[in-house]
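FORM 7B: Structural annotation worksheet

SECTION A. Query
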Amino acid sequence: MGKRVLFLDIDGVLQPFTQHRFKHIENGDMEKVFEELQQRIGLDYRKYSIYDVAAVYYDWAPSAVRELKRVLDTTGADFVLSSDWRDEDNTRMRDLFRIYDLDRYFIDRTLKDSGTDYSQYIAALKLGDDRRWEYRTIEILYYLYEHPEITSYVAVDDMRLAGLGKHFVKTDYMLTEELADKCIQILEEE
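SECTION B. Predicted structure
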């Protein structure tokens, strides 16, 4: 069996466009959160943006996180971050994923710099007219091109990713049980 990978978007998949973090930051709740995380995880999250830590802690939907874990545990897949959050370094993202014990599944992120000239990837992938391809689709396809050991994959995103065919699951608000079942079905097909 080859490697199974889920390409993960965050906003609209784990974070259903909620903004609870601002209220909690304004109310001064974050000091308690930092202390709780220090006790539970053994890491001082004060070194990261208060807004990012609060977003993960308060805005990620626990049910969506549970469904993601179920997909990964059921299929033995790991995930590659394809979200706009991919612009952050792997260490920082791994630490943020640790808040929900997702760090053990996180293996990488797609293209590491947002100033990428996609023409070289479009040429390598022989995609033709670059205007018809969404940048995130190009990044996922190029990641697969560079990692031939991946034999089964699914991309989960709230943005329509044309070009991935049956390997794409679109969320409307967040990852649900029904959508997670669809991800499992796709990942289990080699």
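SECTION C. Observations
The longest helix spans residues 62-75. DSSP finds eight helices and five strands in the chain.

SECTION D. Sign-off
Analyst initials: ____
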